[in-house]
Amino acid sequence: VHITPAQNGSFTVKNGSKTIHNGDLVDSNTRLQLVAIPEKGYVFDQWWDKDTLATKEYILKSSVSISALFKKGLAVEEEQGKLNIRTYTNNQIIYIELPGEESYLVEIYDLQGRRIHFQKNAMHTINFPINSKGTYILRVRNATEKWVQKIIVS
Fold it and tell me: What is the pTM of this model?
């Protein structure tokens, strides 16, 4: 197994509880557990095989070179902003109440940095069904301000 060091993050490769290191010999059909760990300000993008799940199992078929890509992430620490936006969740649906009569750009991201919902020219109350329970990042922008909030869907 060849392991290529990542930039802007790291990853682990394990066979059960045993950590696999660069150059280790691993038998074919071994089930490996891979976990990507982004540095602050970055999110996991994809593995060498284009898979976008930050935690995954991989069955080794032959010699492989494992690598992970990370990209600049959402700044969750950003100040929420002065927009008077109300959010709530119910039955795996995120509800967003937008103020006034202007239009907004609304985006929802998962914690791997993938945009899972997007709506231009949003107004009033909108909702987005979420397929999986978890933590998401809501980003709302208008012509002059932006607003960011972490949302937990349970």
Answer: 0.53
